[in-house]
Amino acid sequence: MKKIMISLALVAAICGNLYAQKDTLHIYGPGGPLSAMQDCAKAFSVKTGIPVKVTGGPESKWLSQAQANSDVIYGGAEYMLTQFMQTHPGMIDAATRVELYKRRAAILVRPGNPKHIIGLKDLAKPGIKILDVNGAGQLGLWEDLAGKENLIGGIQRNIGGSFANTALGIEAWKKDQSYDAWITYASWHENLKDVTQVVELPLASRLFRGTPVALTSNTKHAAQAKQFIQFLQSTDGHALFKKWGWE
Q: Which residue among 22, 77, 129, 217 has the highest number of C-beta atoms inside a 10 angstrom radius?
């Protein structure tokens, strides 16, 4: 009888482990931090055996899924997660919200920098066409930068198109070669190396925005989700974010 009880206990433990390994954590957020989050998810899964699926992009593409099964939501800037919490009250566990890492603004130009853009003042010159993403973590980004150098009017006149999210901005950048520059995050160059070059801003002029993350209120895997966030905050997690252009 004792041997049977031990065997049953062993089977139960094995089954429990198998179930835990199949119970996927679901992470949702915008496209900006997606590559870094996916790399972190892979590393975390290797380390813990807990599978993680990260879905990123415009909120409209994943919201219904997230309402059903999300464990963690991240933002591309602090205001983005705040807006998400205001728009979907009760979905985020506000007490679990933490800041991860910041990313810096820069100017993306065409490879080879054919218009010889070296700073913000060049973006206010005649003949420069600027792409603008008016949302998705970049809301007001160019204006905050331009305001420091009294260039708001000049840069605004050169904006050739404004887009609601980065996915639409990338599509326009690739299709329309007439765009010369895009004030966005330097981190986007890591995903767009074949079609962009980075023009860094002087240290005194740089702006940074954060990357917030929080558990959802309806997560069924709170312990594992907290473990994932702890990994994001670890040295290993930070190294993966640095790889994708974060500070």
A: 77
